[in-house]
Amino acid sequence: MIDKTTVKKYAIIAGLSMGSDEDVDAINNFLKIIEGIKGFEEDGGEMQVEPAFGLFNVLREDEPGLSMPRLQVLENSPSVEAGCVSVPKMMKDEK
Q1: 3-class DSSP state for residue 51?
Q2: How many CB atoms lie under 10 A from the CB of residue 48?
């Protein structure tokens, strides 16, 4: 079981500043929720969680169709290089 003393001890180890007892209580309550979920999963139970905002299935069915012609894709691309769509680098070169 997690108590306030344990929360304060781990906060010091992690270098966190607990401004008030309300902060400690909030973290303690959050950890209790996590601890309860972990215990529930270890028991092999299933959680029945209501979908957020009343959404149930937000994905549409996949409907295969014809692809856009290659030349049309290249014409609609902002940058083309050597017959291919050119995109900015996302990662640095390792040297």
Answers
A1: coil
A2: 5
> How large is the C-alpha radius of gyration of the chain?
26
Q: How far apart are CA 7 and CA 17, in angstroms?
A: 11
Q: What are phi and psi of 38, to 5 degrees?
A: -60, -45
pTM reported for the whole predicted model: 0.36
The whole-number average pLDDT for the span 46-73 is 75
Q: Which of 37, 38, 17 is nearest to 27 (CA)?
A: 17
Give Cα 68 distance to the centre of its chain: 32
Q: Give residues with Cβ within 8 angstroms of 31, minimum separation 6.
A: 2, 7
Alpha carbons 75 and 85: distance in angstroms, whole number: 10
Among 53, 44, 8, 45, residue whose Cα is nearest residue 27: 8
